[in-house]
């Protein structure tokens, strides 16, 4: 029985949760890639899928600023 | 247009993920997006409730699985 309880504990601990934002619906892959790479570089990208062009970031402020600066540059 | 959807990223085993999907199927109140085999995005205000729900399921399910593996070993 103790082994079973340990197994349950392991299972529930195996879930890790992080709050943040899912970035999706990018117009172009190029734009997605630039923003996702930026998020990766500053260490806020928790998950990404280059095929689907979506990524999850734990913080949004710096990414917003980066996207604004990208728009100005274009 | 780019959208940033607020929520909570859940990382877990595929087995756990399938349980979460089962829980969500009943009410559709947890999952925002199914990301891949080991990742889900859920509503951030539902995390605590999901964890409680999940713990309950695991308590119900784990003993069954263990019984099966035991009986397999005994037979062979």
Short synopsis of the structure:
The complex is a heterodimer of chains A (74) and B (76). Chain A has 74 residues and is of the alpha+beta class.
Structure description:
- The complex is a heterodimer of chains A (74) and B (76).
- Chain A is an alpha+beta fold.
- Chain A has helices at residues 2-13, 29-41, 61-73, and strands at 16-24, 45-49, 54-57.
- The longest helix of chain A is centred in the middle third of the chain and has 13 residues, at 29-41.
- Chain B has 76 residues and is of the alpha+beta class.
- Chain B has one domain: 2-Layer Sandwich (Alpha-Beta Plaits).
- Chain B has 2 helices and 3 strands; from the N terminus they run βαββα.
- In chain B, helix 1 crosses helix 2 (47-75).
- Chain B starts with a strand and ends with a helix.
- Chain A binds chain B through residues 4, 7-8, 11-12, 14-27, 31, 35, 46-47, 49, 54, 56-57, 60, 63, 67, and chain B through 1-13, 16, 32-33, 35-36, 39, 41, 44, 47, 51, 54-55, 58-59, 62-63, 66.
- Chain B: This is RNA polymerase 2 general transcription and DNA repair factor tfiih component.
């Amino acid at each position: 029985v103790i082994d079973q309880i340990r197994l349950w504990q392991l299972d529930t601990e195996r879930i890790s949760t992080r709050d943040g934002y899912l970035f999706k619906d990018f117009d172009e892959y190029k734009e997605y890639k630039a923003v996702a790479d930026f998020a990766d570089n500053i260490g806020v990208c928790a998950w990404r899928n280059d095929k689907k062009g979506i990524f999850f970031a734990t913080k949004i402020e710096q990414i917003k600023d980066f996207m604004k600066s990208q728009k100005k540059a274009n | 247009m780019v959208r940033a959807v607020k929520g909570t990223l859940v990382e877990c085993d595929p087995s756990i993920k399938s349980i979460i999907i089962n829980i969500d199927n009943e009410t559709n109140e947890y999952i925002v997006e199914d990301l891949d085999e080991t990742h889900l995005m859920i509503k951030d205000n539902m995390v605590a409730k999901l964890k409680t729900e999940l713990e309950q399921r695991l308590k119900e399910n784990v003993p069954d699985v263990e019984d099966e593996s035991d009986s397999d070993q005994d037979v062979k």
